[in-house]
Structures are given as C-alpha cells and as structure tokens.
C-alpha cells in the first residue's frame, strides 16, 4: 500500500497505473474509519484494479461554529484498516497541500444544497463539492463510492458529476449500523454513554415513521410531529430537522404519495447525527 502525501505524487501514481491499463476505485473520507467506511472500500475493491482511499478533514466544509478542531483522528488505525481492506493507495494530504494561500476557486450548486442539512450548514456542500472536485482531479478515479448515510451529499456529487462531465461512475453504499440501529459515524465518538443510549432515537424514529405510513398516515406535518415528540422523549436531544422529501429533487412533500425520503439531523450532546431512509407507501 502506497501512501501519497502530495497532489503531484498522487497524480503521478494514478497516471502510472492508468498507463499500465489499470482502473481505479476511490473512497474519499475524513478518516477515523469505521465499518461504514470499510463497507465502501469493500464495494470499490472488486470494481477496479486499484483501490484508493483519501483521508482529509476538509476545513472548507465546516462552518465557523462546527467541530473542525475537535474532529477525531487515528491515522495509524485508519492505515491498518485500509491495508486489511486491500487499499493500494492512500492519499493523505495536509491543509496547505490542498489549499494554498492564494486559493480562490469554489464549486457550488444552485438547488440541492438548499434543503435538509444545507439549511443549518450553509457553507457545507460548497466545501464538499469543491474538495471532491479537487480529489477527483488528483486521484483520477474510474469509480467513486459514497455512503447513503450522507444522502444529500451523494445526490450533490451525482448532480455535479453529471453537470461538470466527470467521467466517473458514482456508487452509493448502504448505511451500516450498530446492532441497536444507530448509523455508524465518526461523530459517535463524541457521545457519552448516556448520550449513546439516546442516539438510537434517530433510527427508531425512522422505524416509527415507516410504521405510521404502513398504517395509512399520509400527512407529513402529522408524521413530523409524531417523530419530533418521539425524539424529544430521549434525554440530551435537540431536533435540527425532520423532513420528508422527494428522493431526487429533495423538495419537501406535504403528503406521502410515492417513494419518499425521510431525513433527519438530531443534536445529541456534542454530536450532530444524521440518518435517513426511503419510505414507500403500500
Ligand atoms: N454508517 C455508514 N454507512 C455507510 N457509509 C458511511 C457511513 N458513515 C459514513 N459513511 C460514508 O463514508 C464516507 C466518508 O464519510 P466521513 O469520513 O465523513 O465519515 P462519517 O462517519 O460520516 O463522519 P461524520 O461523523 O463526519 O459524519 C462518506 O461517503 C459517508 O457517507
Ligand atoms: C466526501 C468527503 C470526504 C469530502 O470531504 C466528506 O464530506 C465525507 O467524508 O463524507
Ligand atoms: N460525512 C459528512 C462530512 C461532514 O459532516 O462534514
């Protein structure tokens, strides 16, 4: 497994592989790897000859009051997991390597970032679109794998790849969960044991909403009210949003008539946790 710390080294590595006729799968991450990340590596591995993992905590996708400086890190453990998963190249740049002092170009999308997480994280998706564009140009993958836990991020990347004509196949990996249903996340590391017990409220609220829809409830305000009350019955929780929306446009819906995305963000202690699922009315 090769570790590449500069853009030039990474580009040269990928160019050399391509010259040998090899294809490249790519999994971008911010590190502190867990089984969710490993599942994306497992998806990417059989699809190409080479498997590249990037680890970069991208400062431009964090707002001023977010957890950039507290973001967890354990590079040695990440490298061990990467090796076990068959990664052949790790891109591990630092902040100055990615953004020089005169950096001034940003990628933005008109609509998709306005919904869901974009409302409370106004700079987030511009930062993601910009860094993923840079990572695609540096790693030059044939295939890139993103998790469905960040459903809106995946939708934005797909749109960006289409709009900007990247010749990269984008694959979405299913959400990997703890035994009690909590979606795995690097931010689960911030939870105290009491908060960890409350964190199950997101996946349980999704289950509740699925049950209500199966019972025939169709009114989104009613569904959201029920889910909100359920989540607030757990200690240490604050609802950022619970929304039901169109799975492609992410526009809010008023009634559940067709396949609908339910997405939520809940602050549990210091962790802002997200979860989502598709609901199909019977
Ligand atoms: N539980 C999960 N199941 C599947 N994919 C996941 C899961 N958690 C994260 N991913 C995916 O891993 C990739 C890298 O995400 P990232 O490094 O931000 O991890 P994270 O655990 O989501 O961290 P955070 O706590 O910042 O949300 C993204 O494509 C993300 O959607
Ligand atoms: C895609 C990504 C690596 C860009 O920094 C990040 O948003 C993430 O880990 O999901
Ligand atoms: N997985 C999304 C990265 C972030 O929350 O900044």
Automatic annotation (TrEMBL):
Pathway: Cofactor biosynthesis; (R)-pantothenate biosynthesis; (R)-pantothenate from (R)-pantoate and beta-alanine: step 1/1
Enzyme class label: ligase
Binding positions ((R)-pantoate): 61, 153
One GO process term, biological-process aspect: pantothenate biosynthetic process
Residues binding beta-alanine, per UniProt: 61
InterPro entries in the cross-refs: Pantoate_ligase, Pantoate_ligase_C, Rossmann-like_a/b/a_fold
Keywords from the UniProt entry: ATP-binding, Cytoplasm, Ligase, Nucleotide-binding, Pantothenate biosynthesis
Compartments, record wording: Cytoplasm
EC number(s) from the headed UniProt entry: 6.3.2.1
Cellular component, GO annotation: cytosol
KW Repressor (keyword) present: no
Taxonomy, superkingdom: Bacteria
Tagged with keyword NAD: no
Active site per database record: 37 (proton donor)
Location, primary (coarse class): cytoplasm
MF-aspect GO terms: ATP binding; pantoate-beta-alanine ligase activity
Entry-linked Pfam families: Pantoate_ligase
Annotated positions binding ATP: 30-37, 147-150, 176, 184-187
Additional observations: The reaction proceeds by a bi uni uni bi ping pong mechanism.
Protein family: Belongs to the pantothenate synthetase family.
Name of the protein described by the UniProt record: Pantothenate synthetase
Organism: Desulfobacter hydrogenophilus
Lineage, highest ranks first: Bacteria, Pseudomonadati, Thermodesulfobacteriota, Desulfobacteria, Desulfobacterales
């Amino acid at each position: 497994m090769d570790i590449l710390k500069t853009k030039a080294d990474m580009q040269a590595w990928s160019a050399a592989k391509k010259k040998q006729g090899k294809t490249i799968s790519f999994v971008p991450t911010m590190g502190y790897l867990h089984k969710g990340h490993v599942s994306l590596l497992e998806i990417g591995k059989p699809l190409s000859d080479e498997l590249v993992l990037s680890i970069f905590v991208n400062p431009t996708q964090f707002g001023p009051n977010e957890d950039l400086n507290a973001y967890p890190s354990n590079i040695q453990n990440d490298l061990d997991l990467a090796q076990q998963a068959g990664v052949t190249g790790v891109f591990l740049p630092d902040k100055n390597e990615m953004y020089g002092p005169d950096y001034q170009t940003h990628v933005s999308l008109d609509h998709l970032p306005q919904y869901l997480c974009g409302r409370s994280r106004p700079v987030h998706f511009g930062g993601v679109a910009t860094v993923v564009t840079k990572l695609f140009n540096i790693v030059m993958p044939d295939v890139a794998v993103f998790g469905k836990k960040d459903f809106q991020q995946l939708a934005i990347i797909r749109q960006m790849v289409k709009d900007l004509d990247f010749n990269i196949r984008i694959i979405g990996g299913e959400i990997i969960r703890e035994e009690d249903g909590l979606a795995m996340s690097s931010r689960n590391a911030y939870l105290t044991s009491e908060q960890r017990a409350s964190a199950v409220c997101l996946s349980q609220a999704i289950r509740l909403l699925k049950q209500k829809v199966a019972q025939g409830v169709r009114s989104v305000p009613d569904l959201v009210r029920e889910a909100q009350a359920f989540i607030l019955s757990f200690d240490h929780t604050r609802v950022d949003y619970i929304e039901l929306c169109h799975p492609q446009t992410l526009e809010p819906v008023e009634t559940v008539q067709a396949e609908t995305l339910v997405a939520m963000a809940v602050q549990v202690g210091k962790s802002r946790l997200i979860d989502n699922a598709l609901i199909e009315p019977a």
